[in-house]
Amino acid sequence: MADKEDDIGKVWDLIEKIGFCMLVTHTGSDLRARPMSAYGERIENAIYFLTDVASHKDEEVALHPNVCLAFAESKGQKYVSVTGIAEVQNDRERIKELWGTPAKAWWDSADDPSIRVLKVTPAFAEYWSSPGTVISYIKMAAAAVNGSRPDLGDNVKIEM
Question: d(Cα 127, Cα 61) in Å, to the nearest integer?
């Protein structure tokens, strides 16, 4: 059980460190991704976003609540994919808690009545963590010369 708890902790650490992700929703006929500022709350097992009531993602989530969040820190070669269920909420207190610099680019204040909270409850996650770009390239080159597969770090799949 400790390994599972460690892996879940690693997922949350990466989510918090990276901070931004691509939110993938289902339009009904296609998948659509857009960058979003993510606020992880590991104790609640939830990832929050601020969104606008008039945005298409809110409509898409209402019809198809299954979403995917793709976090990437390409410089450090660390990635997380989270699959979960999303819901749009009009939680004014949560909006004030999440209010910060990214939100100020879209709204004048936390009191804007068009702001909503998008809550994603993770069900499944997968992460990849390698030793970094330079070391990964060295390991790939050595593996190509030796005819072996390189060890590029951890890849873990975990139910949340």
Answer: 24
Domain extent for 52: 2-159
Question: pLDDT digit string (tens) for 102-147?
Answer: 899 999 999 999 999 999 999 999 998 876 544 444 444 444 555 5
Q: What is the CATH number of the domain that holds 103?
A: 2.30.110.10
3-state DSSP percent of the chain in helix, strand and coil, to 5: 35, 40, 25
Element (H or E) spanning 88, and its range?
strand 78-89
Cβ pair 128, 90 in contact under 8 A: no
Rounded to the nearest angstrom, the gap between the alpha carbon of residue 133 and the centroid of all alpha carbons in its chain is: 21
Q: Token pair 């918090």 is at which residue?
A: 16
Let me know how long the chain is.
Answer: 160
